[in-house]
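User: Can you recover a sequence for this backbone? Please restate the input before giving your answer.

Assistant: Of course. Working from this structure:
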């Protein structure tokens, strides 16, 4: 499979909900069937985007795989399922790896320097802080993003497309819902910005110690204010989330943060210490059964 010439997903432009209407004798072409798929995919994605929001549904744990005689040091992403910020399902059916030596070699020296920090406790999740996990004295901070991708699969005979005269033309037969992983250095982090996504419903649960009535009111107010007033659909770009730097697809899902221990050089060099992985800064989307169990139901 190749992502070099993948077709653009119609859902990336947040299209309006236009449902094809058919009549006996109507002439149809491929665009009509594509529009019908877009309508149904778009309605489902719209519901998931508002019901759950972008985040992890199941799996997708990050793990460090150290170098060995028969393997390269890598960052492993375990199988799992996520919802991206447009509401599309993104699935990794088997473990995927990012080879860290190759990734490090491909980074610009300036990026390595600007994304290296001391006092790393400023940039970790609350769980890692609560657990008092040991952190390197200095490390390069890089974030992992999961992006929805479309991959053409298979060919089928078809009429030639365009000003051609061909009897053996072919067209893509299927589009596979696939994924793309990116490990992105994070320069520019400071004491006031850790680059992690805010939790879903932050406005409704900002004060856990509030009375039941106050929490009810906050939840209802958050729902009433939850629809973007300027949404028009049909070509409107998705704005980036707070945790997404320039160059990252705004629909991508944040999975976790990697701290690669480095020295104080310019550019820095990798140290012998093992990397630290923070899986807990992402948005989690627990199923209803798990929430019911948590509440003792």
């Amino acid at each position: 499979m190749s992502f070099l010439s993948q077709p653009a997903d119609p859902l990336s432009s947040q299209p309006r909900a236009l449902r094809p209407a058919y009549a006996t004798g109507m002439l149809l072409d491929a665009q009509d069937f594509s529009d019908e798929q877009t309508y149904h995919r778009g309605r489902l994605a719209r519901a998931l985007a508002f019901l759950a929001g972008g985040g992890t549904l199941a799996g997708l744990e990050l793990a460090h795989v150290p170098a060995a005689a028969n393997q390269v040091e890598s960052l492993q992403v375990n199988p799992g399922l996520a919802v991206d910020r447009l509401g599309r399902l993104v699935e990794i059916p088997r473990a995927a790896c990012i080879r860290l030596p190759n990734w490090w070699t491909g980074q610009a020296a300036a990026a390595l320097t600007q994304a290296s920090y001391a006092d790393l406790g400023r940039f970790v999740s609350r769980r890692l802080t609560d657990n008092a996990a040991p952190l390197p004295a200095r490390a390069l901070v890089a974030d992992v993003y999961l992006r929805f991708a479309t991959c053409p699969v298979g060919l089928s005979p078809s009429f030639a497309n365009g000003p051609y005269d061909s009897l053996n033309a072919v067209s893509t037969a299927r589009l596979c819902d696939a994924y793309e992983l990116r490990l992105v250095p994070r320069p520019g982090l400071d004491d006031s910005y850790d680059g992690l996504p805010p939790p879903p419903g932050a406005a409704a649960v900002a004060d856990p110690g509030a009375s039941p009535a106050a929490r009810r009111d906050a939840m209802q107010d958050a729902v009433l204010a939850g629809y973007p007033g300027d949404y028009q659909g049909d070509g409107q770009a998705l704005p980036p989330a707070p945790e997404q730097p320039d160059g990252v697809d705004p629909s991508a899902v944040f999975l976790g943060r990697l701290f690669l221990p480095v020295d104080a050089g310019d550019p820095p060099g990798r140290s012998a210490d093992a990397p630290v992985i923070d899986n807990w800064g992402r948005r989690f989307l627990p199923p209803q059964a798990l929430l019911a169990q948590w509440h003792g139901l």
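That completes the design. The chain has one domain: 10-285.
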